[in-house]
Design brief:
Elements (H helix, E strand, L loop, with lengths): L1 H40 L4 H42 L3
Helix pairs in contact: 1-2
Length: 90
């Protein structure tokens, strides 16, 4: 029973990392590029760093949304099918 619970939690962490890594990487890259742009032009505007990151994350969600959804539904279908091993119900 404890093995199944550990396997479910490990699967949840791996799945969340797979889904969130492209979003975080794109946001990090855009933030780095905007930071370099702000440092070279000496423009220190808060919205200049926030709005491009928001736009890139929105575009990534739009383009990668079906893939993210497919991964999450596969994860939920697998975990719900093995959930009864964890709770140990007949």
């Amino acid at each position: 029973m404890f093995d199944h619970a550990l396997q479910l939690s490990q699967s949840a962490m791996v799945t969340s990392a797979i889904v969130l890594l492209p979003l975080l990487a794109a946001s990090l890259l855009v933030g780095l590029l905007v930071g370099i742009f702000q440092a070279t032009t000496q423009i220190q505007e808060m919205t200049l760093s926030f709005l491009p990151k928001l736009a890139v994350v929105g575009i990534m969600l739009y383009l990668g949304g079906p893939w993210f959804l497919r991964i999450l539904t596969t994860f939920m279908a697998h975990d719900l099918s093995t959930f009864w091993h964890v709770v140990n119900l007949p």
